[in-house]
Amino acid sequence: MRFVSLNAWGGQVWPALAQWVPAVGADILCLQEVTRAPVPSPDWLRYVDPNRALDQRADLFADISALLPQHQSYFAPATRGVLHDKTGQPVASEHGQAVWVAPHLAVTGLWQGFIHDQFRPDGWGPEPVSRVMQIMRLCDPAEGSQVVFAHFHGMRDPSGKGDTPARRAQAEAVLGALRAFIEPGEALILAGDFNLLPESETFPLLAELGLRDLITAFGITDTRTSLYTKPQRYADYALVTDEVEVLSFDAPAEPEVSDHRPLILDFEI
Question: First-to-last CA distance in the chain?
Fold first, then answer.
């Protein structure tokens, strides 16, 4: 089975992303920084805040779903605010994360909820912006095996990726949600753009569930592409329990489908 996680960057590198998504062969595709259009919208909108200005696909969730028409799709909104079209007119937009699951797999359990703050219905608001997590239990009827996976986009702090009380609370919320969902001895995969450094106190907390980090285990020191120009290269992580047999794991630098590299895990249970 193939599990893939990527911060999709709102689809800024859309032509490359559109080619890559069907080609990567993901049975489970987890994307962070996904937009959804709650109202009719042009293909592109623009996001601006004091720290950045980004062009984004207006409905990346629909875009990816069209590329994977047989996959089961799930969107988790964190915020709803206003972006602008090329004429400067405001357009309502939702921002969050999403999962696509291959049609031959049965989704037998699902939880999504907040690990920081709550849904913001009337704008993005101050940093750190609300964050959600999705957890699913999948069964492969052909094999009779099952796995639980989860992903989240860790809170962004303009001051950096170091530990803070807010990030400690986020880690405890992640741990609490996983403990409430999983059964003893279940295979578990956790991934996403955590916005953390490898020495973060989050990882010893997650180790309480038997989760080990594949980024450091495989000696990967860069999870960003050349489209990201800052020197700090850690952001994305994938963790597994011992019940997950890792066949291969990589964070390829090419093709560049975001300013983040995808995390690609081939595994068996």
Answer: 9
Question: 136 vs 170, 197, 205, 213, CA distance in Å?
Answer: 19, 26, 21, 20
Residue found under tokens 């081939």: 266
∠ at Cα 222 (11, 188), nearest 5°?
75
CA distance 164 to 173: 14
Domain ranges (residues) in the chain: 2-268
Paired strand residues for 83: 91
Query: 203-241: per-residue pLDDT in tens?
Result: 999 999 999 999 999 999 999 999 999 999 999 999 999
Residue 199 φ then ψ, to 5°: -90, 10
Distance CA 94, CA 76 (A): 9
| pTM listed for this prediction | 0.98
Domain at 2-268: CATH architecture: 4-Layer Sandwich (3.60)
